[in-house]
Amino acid sequence: MVKDYSLFILMLVTLFSYGQGITFQKNTSSAARKFKLVQKLNKSGDSLILATEHEKIKEVDILNTDYFETIEVHNTNAKINLKHLTIGNYVVQARIGRHWIVMYLEKRDLKANGLKTVSLNIESDPIRIVPKNTIDSLAFSKRKSNQLYLKTKEMYWVVYESKTQFASHRTMSLKYADEIYNLINQIELEINSKVGINNTLKVYEVFNKPKFMRKQLRNKDYYKRKRSEHFNVEPLYNSDEKKEDIKEF
Description:
The structure is a single chain. It contains five helices and 15 strands. Strands 1-2-9-8-5-6-13-12-14-15 form a ten-stranded antiparallel beta sheet. By secondary structure, it is α+β, with helices and mostly antiparallel strands. The protein starts with a helix and ends with a helix. β8 (88-96) and β9 form a beta hairpin.
């Protein structure tokens, strides 16, 4: 599904710039014209607007080499929030019928001088790792005294799903230990509430980040595999287990 966008996007897109540090490239292919797909940012430049005349947009994916977000739409129009995206280059793909309409955006820091654009080449680009020293280094252990311990210098694949009767939203990304601890605190509050009881969080240990991400970008359900040499297929943390504990209690 996901291909070498470095070449593909250059062939199909037109460039648009906005004042909020985002450069957006829309798709001008025959498929986009067929569905009369509206592709633009809102006036404040912090949301992506997509709309068709008749055919429903099934879902929208936003991804790069360390982030993957899926928004279920099932409507002829969608407003996708971009505020939470970090600085970087992203592929945006909208599924309409059997077609994937591919777009592209870059979110940049307007305060930075001489910022260089990084091309997204899935076949060769290494995973970008930003060092963090926010908490002390801990030895890894899956679970001890009901507590999860993670290596602070390593990154883990995190899958968060928010499910309501109206929409489903899945976010997948590489995260550091301190970010994961905060997400665990959040999900354990959510699953104890009526509103967030169906939300889920899973954390996977990744052994080889570049190879894992290449597989994941080609198949967004790769993390569900039963076997892999690139990551631990058994989640280090699974909120569904917590739900079972709550039911038993």
